[in-house]
Design a protein that fits this description.
Distance between the termini: 64 Å
Helix content: 40-55%
Radius of gyration: 28 Å
Shape: elongated
Strand order of the largest sheet: 1-2-3-4
Number of strands: 7
Length: about 200
């Protein structure tokens, strides 16, 4: 895994997974921008034509406004995707977002109660969706990972790591089979001795 410079990890803390929203999410911004540009261009052109402004002036006003209407949503989604990062270690899930004002959230895996993922129709077809992480004592999702590629595997990875941290795995039972058989034999001996009295 790549080293990350936006979070301070403990010396013995290793990165299990890192990711960010899928690249194709920028296409949604482009699509929104194209619709916005078409609407702005149509409204401005109609308004200027109604007033009787010349073709040159109409173009000089309409084109820059349409370009801005295209650029703003595209740039906003691109910037959101570029500055949103997720990092999973064996102890915590980290979320970083922001450009000028950066916010880094640490979510201890011990507190994670539930994880889920959701895919709409397009998400199912194109393999993307949203992963939610709920913690004890929170109302609603504590952390939402949006526009993730293969959200099922991301959700499973977070759930498995949280389960390990909480000690939910059956494989984490302390002691060997022989030690537990000795405990059982001792408990039977005590029960037998108490039953004879």
């Amino acid at each position: 895994m790549n080293a990350v410079d936006w979070v301070s990890l403990a010396d013995d803390e290793t990165v299990v997974w890192q990711g960010q929203p899928r690249r194709r999410v920028v296409l949604q911004g482009v699509a929104t921008g194209l619709v916005s540009a078409a609407v702005v261009a149509a409204v401005v052109w109609a308004a200027l034509s109604a007033v009787g402004v010349s073709l040159a002036v109409s173009l000089a006003v309409t084109v820059p406004l349409a370009v801005v209407a295209l650029a703003v949503p595209t740039a906003a989604v691109w910037l959101w995707r570029r500055t949103t990062h997720y990092l999973l270690t064996e102890r915590a899930l980290y979320h970083r977002t922001g450009v000028l004002s950066v916010t880094v959230t640490e979510l201890s895996l011990r507190k994670v109660q539930n994880t889920a993922y959701e895919q709409g129709v397009l998400g199912t077809v194109f393999g993307h969706g949203t992963v939610t992480v709920d913690t004890a004592g929170s109302e609603g999702a504590e952390l939402t990972l949006r526009a993730m590629n293969d959200p099922g595997s991301v959700q499973q990875r977070i759930a498995e790591q949280a389960s390990r941290v909480r000690g939910d795995d059956a494989d984490d039972v302390p002691g060997s089979v022989e030690q537990w058989q000795a405990v059982r034999s001792e408990a039977r001996a005590i029960r037998t001795a108490l039953g004879e009295r």
